Amino acid sequence: MPQSQSRPASQPETGLPDQFRATRVLSEALAAPLSDADATIQSMEDASPAKWHLAHTTWFWETFLLREHAADYQLFDADWPFCFNSYYEAEGERINRFARGMLSRPSLDEILAYRAHVNATMEGLLDDPSHADLIALGIAHEQQHQELLLTDIKHALFQNPLGPAMWELLPEPAEPAKDIGWHSHPGGVAKIGHQDSGFAFDNEGPSHRVLLEPFALANRLVTNAEWDAFIADDGYKTATLWLSDGWAWVKENHITAPLYWRDNQDDPEQFTHAGWQPRDPNAPVTHISYYEAEAFASWAGRRLPTEFEWEAIARGQEGDLQAHDPAKGNQLDTASAPMPRGGTSLFGDCWQFTRSAYLPYPRFAPPSGAVGEYNGKFMSGQCVLKGASCATVRGHSRASYRNFFYPHQRWQFTGLRLAKDL
């Protein structure tokens, strides 16, 4: 289990009961623009229907809190755990992941009724300090699914030739991109991993020491304009820039640009939650794979940072280095169209690829029981990403946070920040 705490990381000035309520409200606000048909479709196996996210996060509360700790609690529907369990083997059989989009029933309205039932029953547990760990975990879990709901429905709506929009996009151009500056680090021994009494996922610990060589991390993300220059210089056609697996992926899938890009003569566009929009050259590039990030870094004469370098800069551990506030930057505050905007915050806009494999830290051991399946069993073949994105609930992330995806995946808000050796 995560470490004991009195409140989750998100908006720490409020208590767990208010955080629970706000999180549950936000999930439904994010889905509010969707029809039942919108909320049911599944565009690929990596993504899940919006309706499923709303139900799965409710199943989590019902399974790990209400079923175990609410006296005489009866399941809302005894057949639904089969439909809305994700990957918890300890919780039994479940529908295949690729078949979640076949769940035309229950309807969206029925799932909203399920949420209301569980919300009301949870009120009896929210003030009990013995449940604080699980409640904090459940809040963080639902916040993760809020980001997934946004990225999954974006991919689903992208399949529609009409280019439907969920929200109107407020006119807010990206900040003009300045020349790249650098956060320098002298190297040495750095302490990595979760180190305080606040909430953290199990994969963020135990804290441990690593040895860093001198390096520098860019003070901003790579932009759309810089990616256009990479494309113009035949970046997607030059095999020497790519890892072998990456080059095979490019050739097999005919990759020529980031996901959601299209060029109509002199009118470059990208698909967003507000439909097709002009592509801002100053905005951070996003929806790229690890393979693409690695190839761009090679083309630029730089490299990707390790997760330990990134965290050391975020913590400001050495000399005059200043710590970076994980609640700053462009992150999700309300139910609206998330868009990268740029700036110099280390957090926000896009999750940032590192060159680190997602592996357990020294002395890591997953918690016992079903919740032990949360992170540890996925520590194979994936890449660590750091920071937060424009679709991450503000306050959800921190310096020690370890996001992770497979190297070919790019439907998330993923970008890159360059590093170099000193």
What brief labels describe this structure?
single chain; 422 residues; alpha+beta; 10 helices
Helices and strands: which structural class? alpha+beta
Instruction: Give the count of helical stretches.
Output: 10
- Assembly context of the chains: single chain
Q: Rg, please? A: 21 Å
Tell me, what's the shape?
globular
Distance between the termini: 39 Å
Q: What is the string of SSEs from the N terminus onward?
A: HHHHHHEEEEHHEEEHHEEEEE
Number of strands: 12
Largest sheet descriptor: 4 strands, mixed
Range of helix content: 25-40%
Unreliable residue runs: 1-12
Mean pLDDT: 93
Strand order of the largest sheet: 10-9-8-11
Q: Please indicate the percent range of residues in DSSP E strands (runs of 2 or more).
A: 5-15%
Describe the overall structure:
- The protein has 422 residues and is an alpha+beta fold.
- Helices cover 30% and strands 12% of the residues.
- The chain is built from 10 helices and 12 strands.
- The strands form 4 sheets. It has a 4-stranded mixed β-sheet.
- Helix 1 runs parallel beside helix 6, helix 3 (50-69) packs parallel to helix 5 (108-122) and helix 8 crosses helix 9 (290-299).
- It starts with 15 loop residues before the first helix and ends with a strand.
- The model is unreliable at 1-12 (pLDDT under 50).
